[in-house]
Amino acid sequence: MPKIVNHKERKIKIAESTWNVIVREGLENASVRKIALEAGLSVGSLRHYFPSQSDLFLFSMELVSDRVQKRIENTEYNGQPIEIIQQALSEVLPIDEERSIEMEVWLIFSAKTLVDQKLEELSQKVFIQMKTGIERVIHSMEQLQLLRSTINKEMEVLRLHALIDGLAMHHILYPKVLTKEEMVHTLTYHLQSLCVEDT
């Protein structure tokens, strides 16, 4: 009886193998042959699922985005409102091994978006989704009467977005200089600076 192959699981395995090769050897060395070897497949089998390197990179990048979104949707957060907001925003910070790999891969792929239209379109889509999520955070803080009345909400969305991206990138590049604990502390400090004094 022939073995039944779960094609979705195999595509995910190939994408995860792509992440591993990229993190270990860099994007420029992530050849189809190396990725196939990492996934335990032949080059022909890999090309059956991803005819081009662009297709493979696009799916791998989409998988990063999907994993982050599902984690946010499926995690039950506990604590005071500001703590819950901090925990949710930390889903896109490299605070553990899983999220570190996701962020490192995403940053590496981001350079590729300059020359690959499909990746650029996905990157822009995720950027807008992130911005929309932060807009909801600021709106929720206002609804919960946490936000200071003098806050410029539009500017704070841009600033919080830039802060999160900067923290993630700086930790990936300089993990010994900006630690995981400092990332979370900086985010919490910033959120508290937006709140009324008795929060």
From TrEMBL:
Domain HTH tetR-type: 8-68
Gene3D superfamilies for this protein: Tetracycline Repressor, domain 2 (1.10.357.10)
Annotated DNA-binding residue span(s): 31-50
Keywords recorded for this protein, A-Z: DNA-binding, Repressor, Transcription, Transcription regulation
Entry keyword Transcription: yes
Top-level taxon of origin: Bacteria
Keyword Repressor part of the UniProt annotation: yes
Protein name in the entry: TetR/AcrR family transcriptional regulator
Organism of derivation: Ornithinibacillus xuwenensis
